[in-house]
Design goal:
Layout (H helix, E strand, L loop, with lengths): L21 H6 L3 H21 L6 H29 L5 H10 L4
Helix pairs in contact: 2-3
Protein name: NADH-ubiquinone oxidoreductase 21kDa subunit N-terminal domain-containing protein
InterPro entries: NADH-Q_oxidrdct_subunit, NADH-UbQ_OxRdtase_su21_N
Pfam families: NADH-u_ox-rdase
């Protein structure tokens, strides 16, 4: 059984790294990834606070919502960054950057 995700779909954009390591993906986060990360986290904190019906549960509900949003926001930013490196999402800026500094696979 082949578990390589790139075996099931062909990338539409230039491939920078077919199987990027964690540090490379996180280092490739751009400003929009950080904005999405922060927005998802902030919305989750707010939803967690508002979903706490009883007064004594608003704080724990807000923290739980924030942690869920933090993890979800990170996973969304990670998915976008990895997709750009693997050529599944538009990656003009990354291609220019890695051509300028050389490909580090």
């Amino acid at each position: 059984m082949n578990t390589d995700i790139t075996a099931s779909a062909k990338p539409e954009y230039p491939v920078i790294d077919r199987n990027p390591p964690f540090t490379k993906v996180v280092g490739n986060f751009n400003f929009l990834d950080y904005c999405r990360f922060a927005t998802i986290t902030g919305v989750s904190v707010t939803v967690g606070y508002l979903s706490g019906i009883k007064p004594g549960i608003k704080g724990p509900s807000m923290v739980t919502g924030g942690l869920i949003g933090l993890m979800g926001g990170f996973m969304y930013a990670y998915q976008n960054s990895a997709g750009r490196l693997m050529g599944f999402f538009p990656n003009e800026c990354e291609v220019a950057q890695y051509q300028k500094h050389g490909f580090n696979k």
